[in-house]
UniProtKB/TrEMBL annotation:
Designated name of the protein: Rubredoxin-type Fe(Cys)4 protein
InterPro entries: Rubredoxin-like_dom, RUBY_RBDX
CDD domains documented for this protein: rubredoxin_SM (cd00729)
One GO MF term attached to the UniProt entry: iron ion binding
Gene3D superfamilies to which the protein is assigned, alphabetical: 2.20.28.10
Listed PROSITE patterns: RUBREDOXIN_LIKE
Pfam family, one: RUBY_RBDX
Residue span(s) of domain Rubredoxin-like: 117-151
Superkingdom of the organism of origin: Bacteria
Length: 156
């Protein structure tokens, strides 16, 4: 078990705190949500830019997750009989497959993929959609469209 212990990066801690903030907000635990929000902001400010970030490196990481990481995480969640983690892993794997598909399409079409259209992201599961309007219901986690937000073009 000691081999599993490691120091988390600021990126990982920021994402973790952000997710905990959302979970607390859903449970109407406003004080805890605010505290996790402060922690998320703190870690986001301490992020380090990836020095050799590239399309291929991102695609490699997604392929690694799809090829190995999800299988390991599913095995551990199954052993722990953690139904919530298993459900979240199903969503995450579906979203990762969709992101991989979008990256491959983007590599072929470049900016043409994004011309005259919008990019939408589900705040619950991370589903990404390219189109004029978001779907009425997220195809991954089934939340209504008001949980699916437009990504500003400057961020793309």
């Amino acid at each position: 078990m000691e081999d599993d212990v490691r120091v988390m990066t600021s990126d990982e801690l920021g994402a973790l705190c952000s997710n905990l903030q959302k979970a607390c907000a859903k449970q109407l635990r406003t004080e805890e949500a605010a505290l996790f929000g402060k922690l998320a902001s703190y870690y986001d400010q301490h992020r380090k830019a990836e020095p050799d970030a590239s399309y291929q490196k991102l695609l490699n990481r997604i392929n690694e997750d799809l090829g190995r990481a999800y299988a390991q995480a599913n095995e551990l969640a199954g052993l722990a009989q953690d139904r919530g983690a298993l459900r979240a892993l199903v969503w995450a794997e579906k979203v990762s497959k969709l992101l991989k598909s979008l990256l491959v399409r983007y590599e072929k079409q470049k900016q043409g993929l994004l011309e005259n259209t919008s990019v939408w992201v589900c705040e619950i599961c991370g589903f990404v959609y390219v189109g004029e309007q978001p779907p009425q219901v997220c195809p991954i986690c089934k939340v209504p469209s008001f949980k699916i937000h437009a990504v500003q073009k400057e961020a793309i």
